[in-house]
Amino acid sequence: VGDIVGASGSLRRTNKGELSVDCDTLAVLTKAVRPLPDKWHGLTDTETRYRKRYVDLIANRGSMDTLRKRAVCVSAVRTFLEERGFIELETPVLEAMAGGAEARPFQTHHNALDMPLTLRIATELHLKRMVVGGFERVFELGRVFRNEGISTRHNPEFTSVELYQAYADYEDMMAITEQMVAHCAERVCGMTSIDYQGQPIDLAPPFRRAAMHDLVREACGVDFRAPELLEDRDAAAAAAAAALEAAGAPPRDVRAAAAAPTAGHALNEVFESLVEPTLVQPTFVTCHPVEISPLAKPHRSLPGATERFELFVVGRELANAFSELTDPVEQRRRMQAQVASHAAKRAAAKGDVELAYDVSVDDDFLEALEYGMPPPRGGGVGGGRGDPV
């Protein structure tokens, strides 16, 4: 069982209509020297399935179907963007400084140049440099790497698509994102209504839109837009910790909220713990605090908030995008604040390896902004996050 054979002869159909070969010659093309998994029970050991994907593909046709659907999805994304005038570019995988997200990078060393390098954690900053250079619609489908925990929701290596369009804002980005998600669902599943673990999911636009602070207020009754919390880090952190404790959140979440370096971080801790898991149907969460959105443009009508959104489906973040910040002076201030915030979180975490990395100001990117970047919208979709959906 498992040998690959070649047969030659004439084709015919049996009485039951099965296409068959009247065999004249039969030859063994490849001899299988290892036994295949049990025909009826297949390959059930999870560790073996993950480490030996080739055996998994032979034994489990569902795994083959998943990879085929993923290939269709990637092709659909590329076609969708190209039909709308976006140009696909390739940006560096090896970088002197990891940027575009806050995540622990993989580190390596370039022997010829005798310098440390990191694998990219996002493609954002290099694509923005292309917008500065004159490309008004760009995207990249590529692998990014984050040296963090591994689970069914996070993988150290995953595919993302990031796209940027000049002279547009986050409202335009929400529209193109929901259209792209619906397009991929139709290409892969033949419809926009899908089933996920027994739960019907409607991916037809328009998706629900809700501000982060409104969702948190509905979940725990605390209004983080109130002046006494918006402008007071200590009060916001205390309110967040109390709300999480009252809701029965894990002690780690309560401690993280109490140690939040800013009022915006405190709001985000409550959102991630209480609200995020409840967002089953597609939902654009908007109006993120400026403290957790260092690359986003300030909101035009909400002080302290940004023109940013995240798309959640079945409790998972599928996309993150915003109207891009183009002011180099404000961008430097935001990056410096991000460095300070990360240092505070790292100190409070007391040796947590997830935070054991440095965050730096990217002076080269700031110099690019000083040449003038057309106001773009931009964002990314994590392929590994959307595949399960």
Q: What does this 3D model show about the protein?
A:
A hairpin with a 2-residue loop joins β9 (193-196) and β10. This protein folds into three domains: 1-35, no CATH class; 84-177 and 193-206 and 281-386, Bira Bifunctional Protein, Domain 2 (BirA Bifunctional Protein, domain 2, 2-Layer Sandwich); 208-270, no CATH class. The protein is α+β, with helices and mostly antiparallel strands and 389 residues long. An eight-stranded mixed beta sheet has the order 3-7-8-15-14-13-12-11, sandwiched between helices. The chain has a three-stranded antiparallel beta sheet with strand order 4-6-5, with no helix packed on it. Strands 1-2 form a two-stranded antiparallel ribbon. The protein contains 13 helices and 15 strands. The chain has helices at residues 46-51, 53-59, 61-82, 124-133, 170-189, 212-220, 227-230, 233-246, 251-258, 263-275, 328-349, 363-370, 383-386, and strands spanning 4-13, 19-30, 87-88, 94-95, 107-110, 115-119, 137-145, 157-166, 193-196, 199-202, 208-211, 283-286, 308-313, 316-323, 376-382. It is globular. 38% of the residues lie in helices and 23% in strands.
